[in-house]
Specification:
Residues 1-22 form the signal peptide. It catalyses: 2 GTP = 3',3'-c-di-GMP + 2 diphosphate. This is diguanylate cyclase. The chain crosses the membrane at residues 184-204, 211-231, 243-264, 276-296, 302-321, 328-349, 361-382. Residues 429-563 form the GGDEF domain. By secondary structure, this protein is an alpha+beta fold. The chain folds into three domains: 10-178, Immunoglobulin-like; 192-394, no CATH class; 408-570, Reverse transcriptase/Diguanylate cyclase domain (Alpha-Beta Plaits), CATH 3.30.70.270. The chain has 19 helices and 24 strands. The strands form five sheets. Strands 1, 2, 4, 5, 7, 9, 10 and 13 form an eight-stranded mixed beta sheet that branches. The chain has a seven-stranded mixed beta sheet with strand order 16-18-19-17-22-23-24, sandwiched between helices. A five-stranded antiparallel beta sheet has the order 3-15-8-12-11, covered by helices on one side. Strand 1 (10-13) and strand 2 (19-23) form a beta hairpin. Helix 12 packs antiparallel against helix 14 (362-400). It starts with 9 loop residues before the first strand and ends with a strand. Mean pLDDT is 84; it is low at 1-18, 24-30 and 563-571.
Length: 571
Amino acid sequence: MALGRLLLVVLMLSLVSLPALALESVAPGEQGVALTDFPIEYFIDGSQTKDYETVRLESFDQTMSTTTLGTRAAVTWYRVSLHNSGSDDRSLFLHLPKAYHVRSIDIVEERSSRVVNRLSVNLNEADAHPAMYRGTLVYPFELQAGKTTVMYVRSHAYSHQWFSLKVYDDENSRRALAGGHLDIALMVGMMLALVFYNGLLYFATSKKENIYYSLYLISGLVWIALSYGLVAKAFNAYGDAVFVLNLSLITMPIFLLLFMMAIFETHEYFRTEHRVLQGMLALLVVTFVYGLFDIATALKPASSLAALMMVVTFSVSISLFRKGHPLVKFFLVGHTFFVVFNGFAVLYYKGLVQPNYINSHGVGIGIVLEALTLAFIISYRIKVLEDIRSKQDELKRQASTDPLTRLFNRRYFMAEGEYVLEQARTSGEPLSVIAIDIDHFKAVNDTHGHNVGDLVLVEVASVFRQFSRDRDLVARFGGEEFVILLPGADLTEGFGCAERIRNAVEAMVIDGGDGLAVRVTVSVGVAEVNPLLESVEGAVKRADRSLYEAKAGGRNRVCGFDGPAGKALPT
């Protein structure tokens, strides 16, 4: 075969019938060594006490260099034989990229049935260990020309036995250590963005489902970062203190159930589904409490619990969909993603399927897809609530305004006026009220018809709005009678406002259609309110008396009372 090519062939059997991988010498500048997917052997030590001398005589089964053996393989020995069929010694590196999630790793290097080197790493004390680099254990070794080296690797996992073994030369080892985890960082970044977005929504709405959703997101991103090595890579942290963060795998479905109860309002409207969710929630809470004392044991049934969780939540969602809940169809879309991808992951964790990217990253992919859908549900629900609120506001506005002139009606004026009066009583500000009546309005209706009369009312009302302030309360009391409440205005200022309105109406020419030009005038009464002695209704009655004085004096004029007990003064 040509010099420099990498061969993966079975050459020989060791004393215990071990298959060997053959490596020919590699010339400078040609492809290096990067073994990432090849057959190895494994032996499950159920007693968790066997040493290397005992294990090497056991019967091993075959698997691949990246494998999953489920929860019944807490202590597993892996064996791989490497044969250098070239004429030069090779300096290689054994990588264990999933070392960050186990309790301890032991490596025994054997050549010609003799131990030539050993390495033991306790992950509780590995943050400064020279063999650990960002969650990956790196073991350097020499593969002598014409010799076979056998590696025994003991992996002591907390709960699930996930294992990966790779062999590199120096250049490929550096590349492997420098890269990776970009996809996980992207997942975590997306979820952090959703947490921030949902936090803003909570401050805007104060809905408890936003809190549950945020906690669900935080639990999910913690578990993703922990399980896929981002915590180890970023913080160089391993061991028991970090492994306890796997409780997020239990808190995540807890907050998802609470979110479902809140956003679907199951307690109020769907009692049966609510009790089912409560039962699942109780089971998860018990598991969480147990995990506070023994996280490794609590996680062993986690994959089965996850499967049950998916069945329960999916069944409840189907039930709510059949009962016509408007939001559940969106939840079903996201939850279907979650169920499908987590189904792959459950099979992977139990060691029932071969490892691949979808299987090993199924939980992370499912969480992110569902999280995006839940964010849409929250946003959609906010939109629905805003639409309802807008309709309610519109109904309130219609109930408080005159449909023709769009001014406030009498009922709203009297209620809001008392509030303004109370403010004036507290602040000591002056307060005035103006009563206005369109002169000879009945004659306009009788002469030109009610359509022209309505047009006159609309145009006159627009003058009132134009010459009043935003804080003034302008209302149509009925027919051709209008009232304006002026906060912060005394009698003199009230007179000034009334006179400006009278002049503007007098100067206005209303186009009645078909060349008809209509002119009207108004009579106005003004009264200053004494907040300590009278009500708004009393002040309006005094302004009405001034209005009658204006009419009696010839119309198109302003009259007013100088105080509650004062005398009517015409302009």
